[in-house]
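Service request form, structural biology core

Requester: graduate student, group of Dr. S.
Request type: structure prediction, single chain
Budget code: on file
Notes: please return the result as structure tokens.

Sequence provided:
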Amino acid sequence: MQGTCVRTTFRFGIGWRAGRTGQVLALLAALGLPGQVGAQSLDAPLTNVVFREGDTLRTVVGAELADPDLWPVVLQLSGLASVKDLSPGTVLAMPVAQVKATNAAILRALDAIQAANAEGARLFAPDDIEAAHDNHATAVVRRGEGAWGASVQFADLATAEATDALLLSLEQRDRAAEALVTDVQGDVEGRSPDASRWTPRAVNAVLVQSERVRTLSGSTTQVTFRDLSRLRLNPNSNATIQRMRSDPLTGGEVTKIELVSGDFYALLNQLGERTSFQIAVAGLETTTESADFWIKTGADGARFANYDQAALVVGSGDQAVSLGANEGAVVKANGEAEVTEVLDRPALLAPADLEQVFGRSAALSWSAKQDAAGYWLEVASDAGFNQMQVSEWGIPATGFEVSGLDQGTFHWRVAALDAFGLPGAWSLARTFQLVNDSTPPYLTVLSPTEGTLISAPRVTLTGESETAAVLTLNGSPLPLSLDNTFSVEVTAAPGINTFALTAVDAAGNVTERTLTVTYRPAETLTLTPDPTLPRDGEGRFLTATEQLAFTATSAATPGSALRLTDATGAVVVQASVGDGGAISLTIPASATPAAFRLEVLSPQGTPEAALDLTVVTDAIQPEITFATPPPQAVARNRLSIAANVGDAVGASLNGAVQPLTDGALALDLPLSPGANAFELTAADAVGNVALRTFTVILDAEPPSLLRAGVARPEGTNGPLQITAQARDNSGLRAAARYKITVGETEQTGVLRCDTQTGECAATLPPQPGALRLISVTVQDYAGNTTEGSGRGN
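Core staff response, request fulfilled:
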């Protein structure tokens, strides 16, 4: 049935929704769409398929269901937790009837959507057709999840919504609307003839004769007329619909647009003897037979570009300029006009047509055109460039990154701008699909299994991954065969071997699988104690407590039995080898050294490897011995000290770690004036700690000699008394020297000093003669010296 018949046959009024089901079915039949899927198909029994030697899950699912990506659903329906559970002879449950029924419902919805779009649903019923698209997409997703009933429900809902959109479109096309706003990007405003101010315009706004439309900065809009002719106003443009007239008798239409400022691009339909499209711009009356042209106006004049074989006539009479295909004109404000050829179309370079681009942005590039002053880029969500997403004018380079797009399909094209600012022919459009894919790729290892023990150095790894995934094995490329499987022979080293497989899909999503295989040559199996365990010079294992946390590694198979016996052969501990050959057990300890034997047992209970070890406790602190005792006071601001820390393995001074060399350390200590306190600690391998503290006074000032003198306090025949008093921050030494004269005789000696009070004194036997104190010399503990004289009698 032709579309015109559908348009005249199906109408809807106030009560149309009540009978929608019947109308939907009738309309589907009229359009030749498939019939509705029966519920019995979804309840049909599953088809059993035997998994055979050499099969892979994806190839079997692809052969039965024509979609290998449904493998997770088949795995779940078959009661299998993982691909690893597959083996030859496994029966797989295939939802053959369910997939067929679901596919039919999804196809029926797609046909209904396409039928509605063909009748202008995107223009006249955008909400309904958008809802139909969304539900169709949901149906596809639910199908991939194996939710057959939900998928059919969403598909049927999409079919009904698409039919609603079709019916609305048929009614709208019969409405006498003059023009519609069919796309709005950014801020678009309108002003009707009877309005006093500008107000926002949204998609589907009806425009009437004499109405004005304008776009603000960074905004575009599209106006679509009854015959589907289109004008796209670019940013900062202002236009008035001066005339829209139709003659019901002849079917002829006259449209006249005044471009007040800015620019627009036009694609016209059905121009002929009965229709006319006129443009008023910069005082010029322009008529067109062309269906594809661009016009711009500004303070410096107007610019025109024609891309159609039919003419675009600028002006009238003798002043008219007729522009042919790919010709442009620049009309200056003084009326001078220059005609030129516009630049040829550029070639789009990347992305390739229909290429998938992953993320929220796309880097677009194109070839350079000679004499181009810039480029004009358009990106739309439809092939007709009716729903514009990006319009960038004057791009200086041959590339542009479009960002902020949602996931979906986008169409793009580029025109080169010449020195006059005239856009050349549009490039051939390309399409790219922006994909926000966050699902890691499929990757499984079929053989060998995790933890396999091998006795030969060569092993073959096999598995399966996702189509077009990039595989690496331990960082090296691993090719996939045509059926998405891989098989590679690798060499294992003695002990535990780790094989890291990585699959990266086109979106950069990563799946990692790690497989460990233990290679144990038949003649070799050893136990290796953890080298960090503390041991003494005799090799005995040390612990500060009554238990030793013993660890070791081995090439033994994980799960192998361990047996620890004492010197009498009695079993002390039983355990098993952990993952990767790790051994961990607790051994009793005491101050008396105890001997043990650790054995790895075969499945038959015979020793495969053995280790003899001795364990003893160590509760003795390390001994800190200074080569020279730290001084009480010094006069220099640095102090060097050497010490031995015995069996300590670590030392610190005031919390700062100090390096040890053969159990000794050398300290170079900076000193501050006054008392400097130090705390030196040393710890042995099992945690016993020794502590030494000392204080060193930095005293660079000599003592103060307060008084000094010599006298006979008991009279002329009494003993001689020499006294002095001094003061010092670090304390006086216990002896001070003096020099006196008795008569003509000079004598020297030592005063005894009280280091607390600073009083110094010495007594000499009675001697005749005059007394004179020549000098007294006192010294502090830092080595500072003061010499002074006093009185005598």
